[in-house]
Amino acid sequence: MEKAMNLLFLVCGLLTILFVILITVFLVISGIPAIRNIGLGDFLFGKTWASTSARPSYGILPFILTSVYGTLGAVLIGVPIGLLCAIFLAKMSPKKVGSVVRNVVDLLAGIPSVVYGLVGMIIIVPCVREIFHLPDGANLFSAILVLAVMILPSVISVSETAIKAVPKEYEEASLALGATKTETIFKVVVPAAKSGIVTAVVLGIGRAVGEAMAVMMVAGNVANMPELFGSVRFLTTAVASEMSYSSGLQRQALFSIALVLFLFIMAINLILNVMIKKGEQND
Amino acid sequence: MKKIITIAAVLTIMAGALGGCGTNGSPAGEDVKSEKAKSSQTVATDGSTSMEKVIGFLSEAYMEEHGDIKVTYNPTGSSSGIQAAAEGRCDIGLASRDLKEEETADLQGTVVAIDGIGIIVNPDNPTEDLTIEQIGKIYSGEITNWKEVGGSDAPIVCIGREAASGTRDGFEEVTGTKDKCKYSQELTSTGDVVQTVSGNPNAIGYASVASAGDTVKMISVEGVRPTTDTIQDGEYKVQRNFVLVTKKDTALSRAAQEFFDFATSEQADSLIKEAGAVPVKR
Questions:
Q1: Which residues does residue B240 pair with via DSSP β-bridges, in sequence order?
Q2: Is residue B154 within 8 angstroms of chain A, CB to CB?
Q3: Are the beta carbons of B120 and B206 closer than 8 angstroms?
Q4: CA B27/CA A29 separation, integer angstroms
Q5: Less packed terminus of chain A by CB within 10 Å, N or C?
């Protein structure tokens, strides 16, 4: 019995590894042919994506840049808000208010991305159109706004934990030396929680890079080179919007995009692991 | 020793799983489908998402009459449906476009219904009629302001569908804008297009006449309103065919043949109308 259970645990453990290996192998195998066919340079740095045109061209630079800019924008807006919210939760908030805010943040994390997309499509897109006097509000900026809100929960909860983990003595020492509470927070607590906060940011980046549904509904999905107020297509939406109808080289190219996206996420995870290791060493 | 055996056992399981999936590479669902296709009592249809309503009405009515036969529908898109029919993964492929030349080599397309593609604008837009040439110029970016086509002084926002959508294919074919469209948004469903056009006073879009709804205004094209009659006799120009795709060299199973005959018979006309499409003129 004991041995059978052991075996079961082992199999379950190995199963997870198997899934990762399967996905990696599958993506590499199905992603390589198109890249070979198109040429790595033309694929990664080509500026035109016209997969269904009579003379198809498969350049994904617009998607890569859009994903990068979109994520950066979301981080630029989302991280300051999230960090200040985390500081509020960890250091400033009265107990009752804090627990309400925390619950709301958890709720925000649980909202399905299609709902974010829907709200973005019906509220943010028209608002952006009106405020900036654009003919159309579905653009990179709207997508950044939606993504910024979507990364808030992970940024807030991870940085709150990091801030709370800073030893009370640091703070007390700073206060005893005559620093104000604000000075203490920004000059002592936040620097001490640095690695945790960076982890939060990287997690947020991961979420933003991988998001498909919500941005598909607000970004316009035209394969243009990214402009803040132009219709754009992300790496994720490039795969999602064409997959159902695709065939031949177009389909293979979509797998290649997925491979690129996968490498992005892998890199982000790698950075995350290094960050966490560093954080442990500091402790 | 025990450990080695355990590891060996696990490795064997893993190898089996890898070997089984690695070469196949297709989602598991397709295997299930092909099994279904083999059973004579199931008619598997696969393809165009725009044909969902038509095929839904037809199969429901058919199954009511023939309790022992089940008609399944897998909404994957026209190209996938044609491919599925060619590979024998379904009985009848569904395409919301005519077959391409290279596809007609071993596939047979039968028009089951006609779908009018409505040109839709925001209800606040005063424009009532456009010519096909004007629509083409609007979508290719030659006309960018509504006042150039008799509307108010406002930029035109072109809303369309994603590449390879059957509706987009049909629309671009008719308006001669293939590969030339300068879209402001490429959306992945009719519902999204309607929603976006209803929310933007400057937008123009296209959608199946049947599914446009009343939150948007459908305009006439070259003076012809999209109605059953005008679509059927080809007077309304922006339209496409709903096609049943079958293999030329392989006979359909009995059940599939019966369903096929039913769908293309006069009996089906009222159902097709109910589903919002236009039956073929007989």
A1: B115
A2: yes
A3: yes
A4: 15
A5: N
Q: Render pLDDT for A158-176 as a digit per residue (tens, 0 to 9).
A: 999 999 999 999 999 999 9
* 170-229 in chain A: CB under 8 A from chain B: 216-217, 220-222
A132-141, A143-152, B94-103, B120-129: range with lowest mean pLDDT: B94-103
Please give the Cα distance from A49 to B184 (Å, whole number).
15
What domains does chain B contain, in order, with CATH numbers?
40-115+242-274 (3.40.190.10), 116-239 (3.40.190.10)
The 10s digit of each residue's pLDDT in A114-161 is 999 999 999 999 999 999 998 888 999 999 999 999 999 999 999 999
- Contacts of residues B223-230 at CB distance under 8 Å and 24 or more positions apart, as own/partner, are B223/B129, B226/B116, B226/B118, B228/B273, B228/B278, B230/B116
DSSP characters over A127-163: HHHHHTT-S---SHHHHHHHHHHHHHHHHHHHHHHHH
Q: What is the pLDDT of residues A77-113, one digit of tens each?
A: 999 999 999 999 998 889 999 999 999 999 999 999 9
**In sequence order, what are the residues at sequence separation of 6 or more whose Cβ sits closer than 8 angstroms to the Cβ of residue B246?**
B85, B91, B92, B93, B107, B108, B110, B252, B260
Give the Å distances, CA to CA, from B89 to B4, B62, B236: 43, 21, 36
Instruction: Report chain B's terminal Cα–Cα distance, integer Å.
Output: 78
**Measured between CB atoms, does A30 come within 8 Å of chain B?**
yes
Burial of B176 (0-12, 13-18, 19+ CB in 10 A): middle
Tell me the residue length of chain B: 282
ipTM for the predicted complex comes to 0.75
Residue with tokens 């109605």: B227
